[in-house]
Amino acid sequence: MMTLPGIPFIYQGQEVGYPVKINLFEKFKIDWSANPDLQKWYGEMLNYYETSTVLKRGIVAQFDGENKKVLIYQRQLLGAHSLWVIVNTSNADVTATLPVALQAKKMQDVITHEGMVTEKEIKLRPFEYHMMRVE
Asked: In sequence order, what E strands does 26-124 have?
């Protein structure tokens, strides 16, 4: 959701992965020692959002693919690196055809900085996502 237009909204306790629904209007003590890996992920995502002009001001260009379980869109802003977001929205493995603009490209994850070379199709695990820029 942090890659879509608008200001990110995080529910109380979401960043520690509380398994219970927390009332937004009642005081609730959060156990900040729970799920340090999830807290790290939220920290990295929020830091990227904070430093990304393309996420704050860029437009969205969505690509329609034949696999409706895979969401592919680009955030773009003149003078900034485009951000490509690829998300498997299902709880099953999927394969999707990439837009021509992403086929046979060298890409880099904007959070981990790991590289990937794309082909015509991409295979994704359940709920797997990529936030990439073309190098």
From this structure: 59-63, 70-76, 83-88, 94-97, 106-109, 115-117, 121-124
Structure tokens at 91: 């709880």
65-112: pLDDT as tens digits:
888 999 999 999 988 888 999 999 999 999 999 998 889 999 999 988
Q: Are 116 and 109 in contact (CB under 8 A)?
A: yes
Q: Dig out the tokens for 88 from the structure.
A: 């498997």
Would you tell me how many other CB atoms lie within 10 Å of the CB of residue 80? 16
User: Which position has the higher pLDDT, 15 or 89?
Assistant: 89
CATH 2.60.40.1180 in the chain is located at 58-134
On average, the pLDDT of the chain sits at 89
- Give the CATH number of domain 58-134: 2.60.40.1180
For residue 114, how many other CB atoms are within 10 A of its CB?
Answer: 10
Radius of gyration of the chain (CA): 17
